[in-house]
Amino acid sequence: MLRYALNRLALSLPTLLLVSAAVFLLIRLVPGDPVVLMLGDQADPQQIADMRAAMGLDRSIFVQYGLWLLHALGGDLGRSTTNDLPVLPLVLSRFQVTATIVFAAVAIAALIAIPIGTIAAWKQNTKADFAIVSGATLLLSIPSFWLGLLMLLLFGLKLGWVPVVGYVSFSENAFQAALYIVLPVVTLTLIEIGILTRMARAAAIDVLRLEFVAHARAKGLREGKVLRRHVLPNAFAPTLTLIGIVLGNLLGGVAVIETVFTLPGLGRLLVDGIYARDYPVVQGCMLFIATIYVVVNLLVDLAYPLFDPRVTAA
Amino acid sequence: MARIPLKANALIGGLLVGGTLLMAATSVVWTPRNPLAVALRQRLKPPSPDFWLGTDEVGRDVLSRIMAGAGTSVMVAGLAVLAAVLLGSTLGLIAGFLRGWVDRALMGINDALLAFPGILLALGLMAVIGASQWGIVLALGLAYAPTVARVVRGAVLSIREREFVEASRSIGNGEGYTMWRHVLPNTASPVIVLATSMFGWAILAESALSFLGLGVPPPAPTWGNMLAAARPYMESAVWLSLAPGLCIALTLLGVNLLGDALRDRLDPRSTER
Amino acid sequence: MRQPLLDIQGLRVTAAGGRIVAVDGISFHVEAGEILAVVGESGSGKTATGRAVIGLLPPGLTCSGGAIRFRGEDLLAASSSRIREFRGAEIGMVFQEPMVSLNPAMTIGAQMEEGMALHTALSRAEIRAACIAMLKRVQIRDPEQCLAAYPHEFSGGMRQRIMLASVMMLKPALLIADEPTTALDTLSQREILDLMVGLARDEGTAVLLITHNLGLVARYADRAIVMQRGRIVEEGEARSLLASPQQAYTQALVDALPRRLPRIRRQSEGTPVLEARALEVQYGGRQRLFRRTPGVKAVNGVDLAIYPGETVALVGGSGSGKTTLGRAMLRLVEPTGGQLLFRGEDITRAKGEAYRRFRLACQIVFQDPYSSLDPRQRIGSIVMEPLRHEPGISQAEKRERVLKTFEDVGLPGFEDRFPHQLSGGQRQRVAIARAIVRHPALVVADEPVSALDMTVQKQILTLFRRLQQERGFACLFVSHDLAAVEEVADRVIVMQQGKLVEEGDRDGIFDCPRHPYTRALLEAAPRLEAIA
């Protein structure tokens, strides 16, 4: 068990290193001199030279990367070029908003989708299965931002149940905060239900095919018990891995939802950073999201043996 | 693994995707009106016999813009998938064929790129390349290539263990010939299934990027930037939000149904990811 | 009149709304305590029959007629909760695939206790004690530790013992065993079946033994039913049924059993076609992240010579290294030590012309005809492909040779089909055609018939022998199936853990085996002679 954990941990370190290198290099790919781009054409040569030195741009690319990585490890992701605020606290404060809606949506969606998907698999090729799969396919085909707009139109503008624009943090007013995030969470939840139901169904079908399920039935167990004790635990482990991937895609694509609902989240910070060519912010956001993704998948893999004892042996 | 009965699946999916493709193809040679022609006196007209889907905030014909948008979306998504498949297959084939340290190095980099959710990588690349049609093709192509590479490598590694590959060696065929003649053609099925899904992802990603203003820049119409432009008029001119959104949703539905049908047919044992 | 334990009347099992019939109105009965074998080839409906009795038909199949009376009560008319009372407690089932028939996420103990807790009123401690006692009965060495372990920690044979223990622990009146040992090698097969039949006799349990293997019927069953295409062809007392079958199909099945045919004794003389000297193949030894895994010698210093025209059988249990040796002789797996001589010339590491001559002259037929043919190639092109490397023949000559070879293997006019359009037997004929189209000097046949039905096995073996006589190639016949070996071999070589343990001509090995491993293999092999 410990060896497995250490192995898995050791494997994710090179990935993180390569991720950081990719983020670093990405910005270096920008055509033109980044300093000129940041300061504008009118900046005087002295100013540019100072900025270059401050950013370490006069040294070799490896040294630059090393320094950047060292700083990043120490929590220093640089300062925003638009408002001169340090990037890390900015990223962290925005991440709270994003994390709330993303994790809430995935958790709720998983709680609903896994039982439904398992039932669909159990009733495979019946009308109930057909209805569930059709519904799920329909849900996952709706673009999140469009669904969000429709939600806003219906519940915000027509019915007036929730505020349309703005955000209040939980620490200020929990009730108000909940009103602001309920629509984004519902929107994402609906779409994730579509994705996760199909995944859970596929995983459960793979398990139901195996002979040990017939063996469990041959013992005389009730169907409910067969599903709970034999099917769900075995279908859960692969589904968990997929949830990790879904979570990552959601973190990456959350910018559109935050735009629709004007939430001050991480995705919005990234997009605004791209508009403003605020490269330290862009780098910081991308590095942060990719790291969260890697860490989430690491946690999923570490949790895997709890559901599938074969893994530690491999 | 028959999901929705196979024929209905393929039929509905085919009709929806076919509709989008037809709209895209037609828009190249003909649209009811000029999708870019501004007519301020006609602004925000609801759907009518003259303007089947109404007009937008500067009086442009929504139907014409939807059709032109289909053209842009299909082209961008198609080229992006093509780029991803070409690049990814090449890398996957090299890794699966050579194995050893080449495989480990390529797949190490590949896994690192996979650690960026596709759309995040595309966002980052857009920051570098700048918002344009070709920018999106390049960004999405690069963002999806690692997934293709992983699938192709996996297929190559599993197919080369099959006995017919050993049989090819046993009759004296060289490694390169065996790869080309026996292994490569058998990786086609999973790649076709994946490419179909990817076409859907690319349509969605393109419209999301355009919605954020990081995709195809206005005034060229795409479904995504039409939705973004419709936002201020959401309440007063709801048709502006409905038409492009519905188009994206129906196209995605078609791609998903078609993907399921293809998967059942070509790749019966696979489970979806 | 005494009531039979299980009485099946006019049972029909159908799929797709009755359009496909798996079991077509069969009637039979099982007496308490007797062992009834249901024999048939694939597609006979034997598995569906067994599954129907316990109400666990695979999705898509339904019982559409007839009655299954267990102690007089019709199970097809019973409610599902009533059926659950029978399952496990009265009717137990042992499944075919031990690798997937235990839940990988639950300990052995939890899975064994499940049935006991459901059907008995015993306390947890009593259940645990019963489990341990039962595991001892099936000769599991450390039962206490076994209860806390997960299935993946055991081999296939061990898992099948555990499965048997957990089913027999409830002392069912009827045990359905569906090909319980098909997935195991000959030695474990014998052990498991002996255990199963012993337990059944002790507890007075009747057994419905579903199998394709007539040897098992002869050894274990009291009575037997022969099924073909969903119907019962013949029924009777097991031994007399096999000794004097009344129906043509049963006769064909019995005839399909390999038996020793008188062979013209071929002298092993001249220069060997292919010779291995102290051949070694070592696997593994890879540098892992934290440690270096030691290598495994799958083939450990083997000397073996094959002379022109003779058939040498290479036998051994699973893990004996016989398959690896077969591959290494053709350099499909590169030897890590020793020498390989082709017609007296050392080609162990040869490249270029010498290697090419060897490669063209030595061919292989694989075990699994489903994976040995490229699914995207027409079979004509599959058989044509070896001729690519044949120097100096025209396209028309190639084509002619391919057509001739198709005729020789009994598939005239099949060239334009794809592999998936053929049956397993037909595919194996294509594989043979591919191996012989270049008139090889040697063919390695790696378990060439073990994936096929009995009657098809017979046809393929007959074809192979005929081709060998006509074309005079030598053959290395790799097999775990001693019955088939007895039929085809001139000489037999026995392998255990990578080494040769015995070598001799066929009659010598089969009539007076010297090495204990050879004796164990022969003892375990189910042969019809047992009834004579």
Tell me about this structure.
The complex is a heterotrimer of chains A (314), B (273) and C (532). Chain A is 79% helix and 0% strand. Chain A has 13 helices and no strands. The longest helix of chain A has 38 residues, at 223-260. The radius of gyration of chain A is 24 Å and the shape is globular. Helix content of chain B is 71%, strand content 0%. Chain B is elongated, with a radius of gyration of 22 Å. The two termini of chain B are 15 Å apart. In chain B, α1 (6-29) crosses α10 (239-266), α8 runs antiparallel to α10 and α9 runs antiparallel to α10 (239-266). Chain B has 273 residues and is mainly α. Chain C has 532 residues and is of the alpha/beta class. Chain C has 2 domains: 6-255, Rossmann fold (3-Layer(aba) Sandwich); 274-284 and 297-370 and 441-531, P-loop containing nucleotide triphosphate hydrolases (Rossmann fold), CATH 3.40.50. Chain C has helices at residues 46-53, 80-86, 108-119, 124-137, 143-148, 156-168, 186-203, 214-220, 238-243, 248-256, 322-329, 352-361, 379-384, 395-408, 424-436, 454-471, 482-488, 506-511, 516-524, and strands spanning 6-15, 20-30, 35-39, 61-70, 73-74, 91-94, 174-178, 206-211, 223-228, 231-237, 274-284, 295-306, 311-315, 337-342, 345-346, 362-365, 442-446, 474-479, 491-496, 499-505. In chain C, the strands form 4 sheets. In chain C, strands 6-7-8-3-9-10 form a 6-stranded mixed sheet, with helices on both faces. In chain C, strands 16-17-18-13-19-20 form a 6-stranded mixed sheet, with helices on both faces. In chain C, β17 (442-446), α16 (454-471) and β18 (474-479) form a beta-alpha-beta unit. The longest helix of chain C has 18 residues, at 186-203. The mean pLDDT of chain C is 89. Chains in contact: A-B, A-C, B-C.
Descriptive tags:
heterotrimer; B: 273 residues; mainly alpha; 10 helices; 71% helix; 0% strand; elongated; disordered C terminus; C: 532 residues; alpha/beta; Rossmann fold; 2 domains; 6-stranded mixed beta sheet
